[in-house]
Design brief:
YicC/YloC-like; alpha+beta; nuclease
Length: 290
């Protein structure tokens, strides 16, 4: 079963004094590209959280956000009383326009805007809170993986349709092939007859066989059929392996291109173009497979 690299997961937990939101967004990428936005208090736990996410999501461009909203009365920001009092003292020594009877209030407003008027006390990590955050991350990962799985089912249906289309076109190629070889043979015989020279029949037949072998596409037909079968087998395997499917599609493209270059027959070349079109649609969608 394949998975898409596109997904979204979110989990919100409510603690007595805090609301914690975990968000995960994922897009397609060749490798793991994880961008994390975490409050500074949890920076020391960032590596552990990154490893959790990387182990679960494996690949993709991933945005991880951890947001903490204070809902209680406690706050880690305090007024730096000594600094504010010193600012007020200095401001009182100045002749400030617009400061009237409410002088103290106005000076206080100015003082709290000054540098270092407020200080943030560094909180210690609450282990119970961090355990709750890890559970929220697990739940968000479960949600994003469900999203990826449902997207993967849609992709799988599309791949199966495209592969079946290519298989049907390959059958059409097999039907056209004898007619194509006959047409090439007729063209060569006509070209030789127009030379109006005596030609050794045995030698001509040998050269004709050698020439026709260059246009033979039996091997390409067999290999393409095998690649199509292997693609479906890999598609239905337990693990999602987008890179492997990408390699198989490259091999399919190689066989289709070779058939096109050897065709030398308009009806077959038209069928090959249709096969290329179907394969191109497969390759586009494979960029989003995990």
């Amino acid at each position: 079963m394949i998975k898409s690299m596109t997904g979204f997961g979110k989990n919100v937990i409510q603690l007595p004094t805090k609301k914690i939101t975990v968000e995960l967004k994922s897009l397609n990428s060749k490798n793991l590209d994880l961008n994390a936005r975490i409050p500074s208090i949890y920076r020391e736990k960032e590596l552990e959280l990154r490893n959790m996410i990387a182990k679960s999501l494996v690949r993709g461009k991933i945005d991880f956000g951890l947001y903490i909203e204070i809902t209680g009365e406690e706050t880690s920001t305090r007024v730096n009383e000594g600094v504010v009092n010193e600012y007020i003292k200095q401001l009182k020594g100045l002749s400030l326009p617009g400061v009237g009877s409410d002088q103290d209030v106005e000076l206080l407003k100015m003082a709290v805007r000054m540098p270092d008027a407020l200080k943030t006390e560094r909180d210690e990590i609450d282990e119970k809170e961090y355990k709750a955050i890890k559970e929220a991350v697990k739940d968000a990962l479960e949600e994003i993986n469900k999203f990826r799985g449902s997207e993967g089912k849609a992709l799988e249906s599309d791949f199966t349709l495209r592969v079946n289309n290519i298989t049907a076109l390959l059958e059409e190629v097999k039907k056209i092939d004898p007619e194509r070889m006959d047409q090439i043979r007729v063209r060569l015989e006509k070209a030789v007859s127009e030379i109006k020279e005596n030609v050794d029949a045995n030698r001509f037949e040998q050269e004709l066989i050698y020439y026709l072998e260059k246009f033979d596409i039996t091997e390409e037909k067999v290999r393409l059929a095998n690649h199509l079968e292997y693609f479906i087998t890999t598609l239905s395997s337990k693990e999602s392996n987008g890179k492997k499917l990408g390699f198989i599609s490259q091999e399919m493209g190689r066989e289709i291109n070779t058939m096109g270059s050897k065709a030398n027959y308009a009806p077959m070349q038209q069928v090959v173009v249709q096969m290329k079109d179907e394969l191109e649609k497969i390759k586009e969608q494979l960029l989003n497979v995990l």
